[in-house]
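Comment thread on ticket #2218

A.B. wrote:
> Attaching the input chain for the structure job we discussed in standup.
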Amino acid sequence: MRKEERAYEIVVDLYFDDVLGFDALAASIGQPDAEAARASEKLLDDGEAVADRLAGV
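C.D. wrote:
> Ran it. Output below, let me know if you need it in another format.
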């Protein structure tokens, strides 16, 4: 994996872990990629909520 790809992955992981806010993410990887990461996080969160409902949690 190239250094840039690894740095991108680390920054997005920090965003998903609520260590970085959206503005810091956008400054690090660019607005379009930050918006894609935010959309991905929402899909993951929504999917987790659906799974919890189906499991009766």
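A.B. wrote:
> Thanks. Noting for the ticket: Residues 8 and 29 are 7 Å apart (CA to CA).
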